[in-house]
Every structure is written in C-alpha cells, then in structure tokens.
Write a structure and sequence with these properties.
By secondary structure, this protein is an all-alpha fold. The protein is about 55% helix and about 0% strand.
C-alpha cells in the first residue's frame, strides 16, 4: 500500500485508493454525514435568526448639519473668506 517509484501511475493510484480506504475513508465519511445533517437541521434556524438581526440592525442615515440625509460630502461646509 505504499508508493512504488517503478510502478505505473495507475498502479500507484490503486495503492493510494486502498490506503485511503484502509486508513481514513470511514472516518471522513462519518464526518461528512454528520456535517451535512447538522447543516440541514440548524441551517434554517440560523438563517432565520441572522435575517431577523439584519432587519433590526438596518439603521437609517443620520441627518447632517445642513439638513440633508446621508453624508454626501466629506465634512462640514466652510464658507470661503471674503476677499
């Protein structure tokens, strides 16, 4: 089940598949199934909660000093000095 530098690529791939099956495939499949089940069960509840929080956090822009909405300019307007 180890790499053989004299073997063909196909033969080494077969050995890699056997190694994966013997050592970690069962563990990886169990984790994948568990993850998929947890996402399916908790996903809708989590999305509903996040959508509700986004609605509650949707603040409107504050009024500026000159009465306009939104910060259309970088700072307060300063009148040019008369010359």
């Amino acid at each position: 089940m180890s790499f053989d530098p004299d073997a063909s690529a196909g033969a080494n791939l077969v050995k890699l598949a056997a190694f994966t099956l013997a050592t970690s495939l069962g563990w990886d499949l169990g984790r994948a199934v568990t993850t998929a089940l947890l996402v399916a069960v908790t996903g809708p509840v989590l999305l509903r909660t996040l959508r509700r929080a986004a609605r509650k956090a949707a603040f409107e822009l504050a009024q500026t000093i000159d009465g306009t909405r939104g910060g259309g300019h970088a700072g307060p307007r300063v009148a040019a000095p008369d010359s």
